[in-house]
Design brief:
Structural class: alpha/beta
Strand content: 15-25%
Low-confidence stretches: none
Largest sheet: 5 strands, parallel
Order of helices and strands: EHEHEHEHEHEEEEHEHHEE
CATH superfamily of the largest domain: Response regulator
Helix content: 25-40%
Strand order of the largest sheet: 2-1-3-4-5
Mean pLDDT: 84
Radius of gyration: 19 Å
Number of helices: 8
Length: about 230
């Protein structure tokens, strides 16, 4: 087995330097980034055995980095570092696609034990499948079917549908959808959400006239997928 490669995304210089040095002392190869965007891009094009990602980064959050990796099909095991010891923050981190978390201040022995545990895990987690009526979304394969027939979606259409399905029955405002699917790169007055909802309706609902429509408009608020 070759040297284990670790992607470290941590903006605190002193902590990042010491963590990199300690990990290299354990014979890991470490590539360190201080910004989430740069670390995210590297994680898409390079292969790593595990990633250590801090939640509180100065540009995009560590949770956002991991969410976008999972959306892009990157399955690297992720250990999340958080200064927030509250249960809610840990759960949100794991919901974004992280595999485990360590609360700062980090005990290096505990961090190593968690890393070894992640490295022993099989590379792919069990398939996550969302079902809404006759609509099925296989998150691992990023495959969508309706009434047994395959549905081809663009990247943004898929991301929008998956987010709505993950929150089935809950009304999502346009701003929430922009924040989660478009990474806040749009302003809240953009009609992009409505346009993409229209595309989804065409492919998911109108293309299957015998099936009950799934995508619902909640006037003045946003959209939801029927449970």
């Amino acid at each position: 087995m070759g040297v284990m490669r670790i992607l470290l995304i941590e903006d605190e210089k002193r902590f990042g330097q010491s963590l990199k040095k300690l990990l290299e002392g354990e014979s890991y190869a470490v590539n360190w980034f201080e910004l989430g965007e740069a670390g995210y891009k590297d994680g898409v094009v390079e292969e790593y055995d595990v990633a250590i990602v801090d939640v509180g980064l100065p540009d995009i959050s560590g949770r956002e980095v991991v969410r976008r990796w999972r959306e892009s099909g990157v399955t690297v095991p992720v250990l999340m570092l958080t200064a927030l010891g509250q249960v809610k923050d840990k759960v949100v981190g794991l919901d974004s696609g992280a595999d485990d978390y360590v609360v700062k201040p980090v005990l290096f022995d505990e961090l190593l034990a968690r890393l070894r545990s992640l490295l022993r895990r099989p590379p792919l987690v069990d398939s996550v499948v969302y079902r809404c009526g006759s609509l099925t979304i296989d998150v691992t394969k990023r495959a969508v079917t309706r009434a047994g027939k395959s549905v081809n979606l663009s990247l943004k259409e898929y991301a929008l549908l998956e987010y709505l399905a993950r929150n089935a029955g809950v009304t999502m405002s346009r701003q929430t959808l922009i924040d989660h699917v478009w990474d806040s790169e749009l302003d809240s007055f953009s009609n992009t959400v409505d346009v993409h909802i229209g595309y989804l309706r065409q492919k998911i609902d109108r293309a299957f006239p015998k099936e009950r429509p799934i995508i619902q408009t909640v006037r003045g608020i946003g959209y939801k997928i029927a449970e």
